[in-house]
Structures are given as C-alpha cells and as structure tokens.
Amino acid sequence: MKKLAAIPVSIETQQLRLSLEPERHIYQVSELNAAVQSLFESRFRAILIAGEISGCRLATSGHYYFCLKDSQSQLKCALFKGAARTLRFKPQDGLSVLARGSLEVYEARGEYQLIVESLEPQGTGALQIAFEQLKRKLAEEGFFEQARKKALPALPRRIAVVTSPAGAVIRDILHVLERRFPGLHIRLFPALVQGDGAVEQVCRGIHHFGSDGWADVIIVARGGGSLEDLWTFNEEAVARAIAACPVPVISAIGHETDFTIADFVADCRAPTPSAAAEIVICTKESLLDQIGACHRRGLQAVRYCLLTCSRNLHQRGTARAATIVGRAIAKRIQRLDELDYQLRNLKQRLLEAHGRRLSQLSHRLRGTDLRLRLARHRHRHEQLAAALSRFMQTRLSERQQQLATADAHLKQLSPLTVLSRGYAIVENSQGAILRSSTETAAGGQLHIRLHNGHLDAIVSAVHPDGRS
Q1: CA 345 to CA 40: how far, in whole Å?
Q2: Contact 417, 411 (CB under 8 A)
Q3: What is the pLDDT of residues 159-215, one digit of tens each?
Q4: How far apart are the first and last CA of the chain?
Q5: Residue 321 CB partners (closer than 8 Å, separation 6+)
Q6: Between 215 and which of 108, 160, 284, 455 could a Cys-Cys bridge form, CB atoms 3.0 to 4.6 Å apart?
Q7: C-alpha triplet 238, 241, 242: angle, nearest 5°
C-alpha cells in the first residue's frame, strides 16, 4: 500500500519540474553569426589594437589582407581599398603598427576579423616609411642611375621655374640670376608647393615646360620646412614627371640638409633655391673673362701663323736650287721604284711557274711512290691473311665436328658404356677374360671389373649348365 501511494506523488513532482524549465532555442548558423555580429557592433567599435603585420598580401581589388600578431596570438585583418588610399605608407610584413577599426564576422567562413580603418606605424613615422618605400621602388626601376641623367646646358638662354609665385623662393632666384647674368629670359609656372592640389600643379608645370620646347633648363624650387611640408616632392607622380621630362631639371627643395625623392631623380640637385640659380649659369664677368682669354689665345695663334709663313717664304728664296735637285732625285727614285715593281712582278711570275711545275712533278712522283705500292701490297697481304685465318677456322671447325662425331660413336661402342648398364668383365688370376664358367674351377681367384671400381672374388662352385 505504501508503494502504491508513492507513485502518484513522483509523477506530479516530475510534471511540475518540466513546467518550470524554459523552452530551449535552436540557432541556425546564419542566425548565430548575425547575433555575434550584433555583439561586436555594440562592444567592439573603433578599437585600437597594437601588433606586428604578418602574411600581408594585396588583392587585385586593391584590398589588403594580413594578420596582426604578438608573441602569443594573431588576429585576421582586412584593409579595404578606400581606407588604404589614405595611408602614407604601404603595409608590409614585420611592421609594428597601431590599427584602428571594428570587429566584424565574415559570415561565409564563420570567422571574425578586424576591419581596419587606419594604420599608424610604431617607432618610425608613416611619412618616413613611405619615403623609404618609394625610394627603394624607384631605385629598383633605375630612376637614380647616373647614366639616365641629362647634362645641364653650359649657357642657357631660357630658364623655366616651377614654384610658388608668392614665396621668397622666386624672388631669391630672380635676384641671383639678375646679379650673375642680366638679360636672361625667365618664365614662371605658378604652382602650389604644399597642400591639396600641389602635386598636380607641380607635375603640370614640369609637363608644360617639357613639352613646349621653350625652356633650356627647368628649376623646381621650394623653401625649407618639415618633412610634411616638403612631402609634395616625395610623391611618386612628381618623381616620374621629372624623370620623363626631356629638358634637364634642377631640384632645389628646402635647405642643404633636406633631401627629397625629387633630389634623387632630378638631373642635378641644388642645396638651396639660390644655389640653383648659381648652378644654372655662370656670372657674366666670368663669361667675359673666358671670351677675353679665347681672344688672346686667338691673337697669339694668328701671330704664330704669320711668323711661320714669313719664315717659310724666306726659306723658299734660298732653297730653290735644293728644290730642283730634290725634284731630279725624286724622278730617279720614281724610276727606281718602277723597276723594282717590275722586278717583283717578274719574280712573282717565275715563282708561280716553278710552283706549278713542282706541283706537276710532285703529282707524278706520288703516282710512282713505293709507299703507295707497299701500302697496296700490305693491304693485299692483310686480305690474304684474313682469308687464310677464316679458312683455317672453317677447317678446324669441321675437324672438331668430325672428332665430336667419332667420339660419340666410340663412346657408344665402348665397353665402359656396357658396364654402365649393369654388366661386368670377369678376369682370372692371369688377366684373361672369362666367357664361360668352364674356364675356371672352384677355388679359383677372379678379378671383376664394374662400371665404377672392381672386385676380387674366389669361386665357390662352378655350374656349367647355367643353373645356380
């Protein structure tokens, strides 16, 4: 009875427990990825992550894919094309960076990754890294080779300047050129040297003077400043415009300690804009000094020529007789040369004739040469020796075959062959072969020869009728 009463109580307790448990939810894969994405959007937006770039690759779409890693873990990252355009440098393996971005789920593979919005190098500035990367790239393409650089004209008449019209640079250049060589033709292409649009305007100015054929030389100039201020002349477009310009280009960027990519690509680098104006042309005074020196050397050459002609004219009056004698001797020498030429021709003809005769005799001698006859007899002897050797080999083979046949026939008739079939040869003590039992008596000694070995026996009984 107690057991029966306990059963309904346990059933009620189990039903009560089931009614209190919450209903379980089954997630689809995409639903779970969407839930994780919502969690990332709420908690991991615009986060900063420090690490080292590893496995960096550039896709054809322009997106960068890489991993940020430390000593214990790594995180997949994606830098899309739009964000990559704003970077001053290109991501590369081994570079320590500070990445800013947001975590997202890549639902196709169920992986989470960091969508990078900006990158900042740690330790070395972004501009310096971009400078070194572009410098290394252009050096590999041969932009810095001395062989491709053009020589500056010695005396340019038309000088083009690409710089800002509002700065002190153009005033310094004009002042130096006016002081050194007044009257030169100078044209200015006004261009921004810093900020938005500066790269396009500088490139446009270089292309303008390089294509119209007016300028003899181009000066690309800018005053001093920080690396950021001078960055226009570290752009790849400016470097390629300078390299492609058919007119020699002088780079005059910043102060003497400032170096830009344009300085390495240009045909000549000036430490300052004023120095560029001094390099492009010499002073008018030095040119006049050179002209004066050339004038003096020309006068000296003319005076020397006149003195030489005067001395020659004087010598001709006193040396007329020597000239006549010299002409007579020259005629005799000419006749002697003609005779020598004829003699040489005769000698050559005689040598050729004797050479032909010698060749004919040599040919006849070779026809009767004993060495040839000996060679023919030796060849005949060798042929006969070979034929004799073949004949002997044939006869020997025939004799060997006959011998083998006779040997086989002899073996068939040999008593040893009969003995091998179980027969024996019986001899008495005197060595005579027994053919009948009557040829011996009881107690006689016998010698029995078998196929292998022999036996000595004593006759115990004789049976003439063949019965045992």
Answers
A1: 109
A2: yes
A3: 999 999 988 889 989 999 888 888 889 999 999 988 888 899 999 999 999 999 899
A4: 118
A5: none
A6: 160
A7: 90
> Cα separation of 55 and 57, whole Å?
6
The number of angstroms, rounded, from the C-alpha of 219 to the middle of its chain's C-alpha atoms is 39
**Mean pLDDT, residues 355-374:** 80
Tell me the Ramachandran region of residue 141: left when phi exceeds 0, alpha when psi lies from -120 to 50, beta otherwise. Answer: alpha
- Cβ neighbours around 121 below 10 Å, total: 20
Q: What is the DSSP string of 331-357?
A: HHHHHHHHHHHHHHHHHHHHHHHHHHH
Handedness of CA 259, 262, 263, 265 (dihedral sign): positive
By residue count, the chain amounts to 468
Q: Quick check: helix, strand or coil at residue 29? A: helix
**Interatomic CA distance for residues 296 and 271, integer angstroms:** 36
**Structure-token pair, residue 16:** 């009560």
Q: List the structure tokens of 204.
A: 């446009």
Q: Enter the tokens of residue 160.
A: 């083009």
